[in-house]
Amino acid sequence: MSKTKTQPTKASARKPRRADAERNIAAITTAALEALASNPDASMAEIARRAGVVRATVYMHFPTRESLLDAVMEYATSLVADATRGAEPERGEPKEALERVLLATWQPLGRFHSVLGINISRLSAKELHRRHLPVTTQFIPLLERGQAAGIFRSDVSALWLIAVLRAIVHVASTELQAGRLSKAEVESTMLTTALAAITP
Amino acid sequence: MSKTKTQPTKASARKPRRADAERNIAAITTAALEALASNPDASMAEIARRAGVVRATVYMHFPTRESLLDAVMEYATSLVADATRGAEPERGEPKEALERVLLATWQPLGRFHSVLGINISRLSAKELHRRHLPVTTQFIPLLERGQAAGIFRSDVSALWLIAVLRAIVHVASTELQAGRLSKAEVESTMLTTALAAITP
DNA sequence: ACTAAATCAGACATTGATGTCCAATGTCAA
DNA sequence: TTGACATTGGACATCAATGTCTGATTTAGT
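The joint structure predicted for all components is written out below.
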């Protein structure tokens, strides 16, 4: 995460919340993320149960299911964005940097892929793209840097490369989940395939 | 499709249905496929409306929603399987054969990807794999033939290659849908990326 | 033309989920 | 410690969807 409690999001200047409220909001958000990852149709009751609160408490902080989904989406995105940032996509050779970033992000990305799937039907393509910005703005410079250096293929757009990478990451976590490959095998195979797909 | 009405599926020996019933079953199945492709949560009422029948008629042929989903899944699979077969995956050089098959199947595959998504949460991985057999049994020999010839990479399993190919096809149809690429661009980009990903 | 099969139109019961409300109780912060 | 904030537990209304049933009507097969 990046802000959530530390800053009041400069523009909105939200009224201070009590500590237990803050705690519950966090619990609900993470519980929702877990619940929705295992079942995209998880009910508000199920989410409340997981968060250890009563249903009314969820509605206290998230007036509708939609608003909770929005919050969960933003939270998941921030987790992936933070993992990406932590892998320093700007540092070093593009190829090494990409490997570093993929290794750091494939697990959260895989974990949240089904949550992302919820939004595919819920939001427009434009809106979806907008919400992925915290992640994509970090990937694009890395890919373009590699393209400029002739290390990544330039006959397709960086956006295509991103889509392909994400798809391969998805395959990787699916194969791990299915137990067809070990974690180490998945990581090595994923890196090999990813590089092969985007190298000229 | 392959059988549906011509053969009585040797084992089951189903009682003959009247022609209008047969017609309605077909109408319901295709209507359901369309409806579910655009909205995976489409209701029985919506599907009946699209098929031009009343809801009770749907329940006449498909006693539960589940059973309808099963039928739709099988239908979609058969469409892809037929398209694959029509592209003659056994003929010619593996690379050319793969290109031929991909060009023949990427559109139906993309179209039905969301329907497939329904089943991901609905069925076990094993069961899912079993239902894809009509397609995978055609792809595996092609890929293994290419691997034996040293044209496709052998450091990963044919199953991994299939998963990667399907992921790339999915990316392709998503990009077309989003209007970021023309159909011709999508096809060329998809083929390039697919080959790059699975070539040693 | 006759009969059996199938569809229609619509009512009906049931279920599960969303969202609202309230009174009682608990917890935080000043 | 006190008042404001928050949570609880439960009731409640609403809604949409599933699945059943029936009687009247249409349609197909022989």
